[in-house]
Each structure stands twice: as C-alpha cells, then as structure tokens.
Amino acid sequence: MPKVHLEKENKTVNVQAKTIAELLKKLKLNPTVCLVTVNNELVTGQYKIKSRDKIKILPVVSGG
Amino acid sequence: MRFQQQIIFEKIGAEGQKKLQKSTVCILGLGALGSRAAELLTRAGIGTLILIDRDVVELLNLQRQTLYTEQDLNLPKVYQAAIHLKQINSKIKIKPFFKDINYTNIESFVKGDLVLDCTDNLETRFLLNEHCLEKEIPWIFSSVLGSIGMLFNIIPKKTPCFSCIFSEPEDILGTCDTEGILNTTPTLISALQVTEAIKILTKQPYAKELLYYDLWKHKLTKTKIKKNPKCNACKGKYSYLNGEKNKEVIKLCGTNSYQLKGYKPDLKKTAEKLEKIDKVIVNDYCLLFKELTILKDGRVLIKAKSEKEAKELYSKYLGD
Q1: Was domain A3-59 assigned CATH 3.10.20.30?
Q2: Chains A, B: CB contacts under 8 A, how many?
Q3: Does B62 contact chain A (CB < 8 Å)?
Q4: Could you give the C-alpha distances from B101 to B226, B237, B246, B299, B301, in angstroms and in order?
Q5: Does B243 fall in a domain?
Q6: Model-level pTM greater than 0.90?
Q7: Over the stretch B256-266, which tens digit does the pLDDT of each residue have?
Q8: ipTM value of the model?
C-alpha cells in the first residue's frame, strides 16, 4: 500500500489507490488546492502509482 | 563605497554590480513579500524599481510588513515605500503606481527586466503569467502562509509556466485570516526571491525547482517541474489577459477584505454624505469609513466575512 506524506500536517498515511486522482479522492482533497509530487517530481491526477513511489502532498499557498 | 562588500562577493563582482545598476525590476504587490524585496533590491543597488500596489497601510500590516511604520497608516503602500526606499538609497529611480492591476492595464504598468510576484491571490498570478509569457519577461512567483513559503522562477520559453503547475482553485484556500502568518516567513521567502532575482539579472544559473520551505520545521522541499503539454497559457491561449476570467469582486488575503469596483467618487462629497452616519477619515488618496476604504480610482475595499456581506455593505453606504 503506497505511503503518502502530507507536508503541511507532517504526517504519513497509507492509502490504497491506483492513480493520484483516486488517492486524492480517498483523502478528500480537492486536486486544485494541493500539489502532488512523486519522487520529488510534480505529477497530475492521471499518474499511475507504483509500489516504491514516494508520494508527497503540498498545500497550494497564495498569500503575499 | 556603498556596494564594495557585494562586489567582493565572487558571484557578483564589478560586472554583476553594473548589471544590477542597469536593471529595472517591477514588484507587483507591496505587502509583506514585496516591501521586503523592495528594500533588499534597493540596498543591493538595483537601478530602477517599478512598484505597484492597490492597498493602503493598515495597523495589522505592521506585524510583518517591515518597511512601514505607524506614520504610514492609511496611506498608499507604494508611495510610503518609495519614501522609505529613497531614504535608504537616494540614487535609485522609483516609479510607484497606486493601481489595481487587471487585464485592461497590465501592459501599461508591468514592465522591466524582471517581475517579482508578491501578490496575494492566484487570479492576479494567472494574469501576470500570461502577460509575462506574451511579453517574454522573466518573473519569480512567491507566496506565503503560516510558516510556509513557495518560490518558482518562470523564464518564458525556457521553464514551465505558472499554469503548468497551478489550477484555478475549486475549493477554499487557506488565507492569512484563517491560518495566520509568522512574520519570519515572508522575510525568508523575500530573501530567497531576491537571491534568485540577482542570479537572473546577472545572467547566472538560477533554481529550476519549485521551492517549498516550512520555517517552523526547517524543511526545504524541492520539486522538479516539467512543462505541462495541456497548458493553455504555454500554447498562447490567454483567458485572463483577454478578460474572459475578469472578476468584479476579489477576495484580498490577510485582511478579511473584498475589493469591489465602483464609480470614481468625489471623496469630499462622499465624506460629507457619510459624516452624517459616522466618523470619516479622508486624505489625498482615500476615504476611510467604518468597514470601507474608498479609493480615488473607484475601488472600494470592504472588511466583511463574505462576498455577499461586502456587496451588502457597499449597497448600504454607497448605493448600487
């Protein structure tokens, strides 16, 4: 089961999902307000998750 | 000599310093990020600064907007910033514009060798992205919230663009009102942004990754970004620049405020009308009344809990 690190909350969770879109849906996260990285590279919702992928979720920050 | 120690620094040298002196940098947004970046660039010997901002200085800005003092309250940030920056370096050229940038005027004001994005909302950034792509102006995205900051260098034709990374938000984003902000966050992110600016202006290698820094955890996350083949902006389809996405009401970050566009008011006559209801403060640029800051150019900043409440307050005191 892929491990997903939530950067803002600083916690790691296990989520069973085939794609990033499915993973975000299970975490109840809107894909437009977060960025998902796999092995430190930005990916889109269509990305198919592999067993050894290191997944991180970063919040979109817009203040100035 | 003022810049001696910067010239001794091997990455800049006399040639680099000359390039900085000949450069024009446009700073869009003079809040926590922009005012700090403006100060650092002024001290670094940038030749010309174009400063653009739509707000006046408020008391709650002073927690983190280090260029301003209590003497600046209720006055436009760009003009007060220009005064302070000139006191730091009297030789710098400063072009301050107390303006709300939108698709109708961005071409007239956002110019230069480099633009620093120090705005407080994604909508303006999407517009800036399209403008800079069209005019081929490098720009540096920066943003902050709580103890988190983000930064990315966008060089047209060389790097991915802002729209390759971000989408229009379909859910509520955290704001300084809801999640707060540590005053060291914009200070650090401005320092990173100005460092990248100096690299770009002196034609040296710059950071290619999206930088995400959490000051509280002392954690830097670098993310590789590729061009998004589905990105409309990269294909020259500019929906913000052509006005398709223009909004009449904009939520401002950090002050629980909304901006509405109205008619250009006669501030004295408006003051006479509103004085019958409650206390009014008027200066050359704006009128302050209850939750409303009425600006000379027709914009009204309203402190409200929702867009609906902002519109109601506008109607209540200024009519439809």
Answers
A1: yes
A2: 94
A3: no
A4: 29, 20, 11, 12, 15
A5: no
A6: no
A7: 889 987 777 88
A8: 0.95
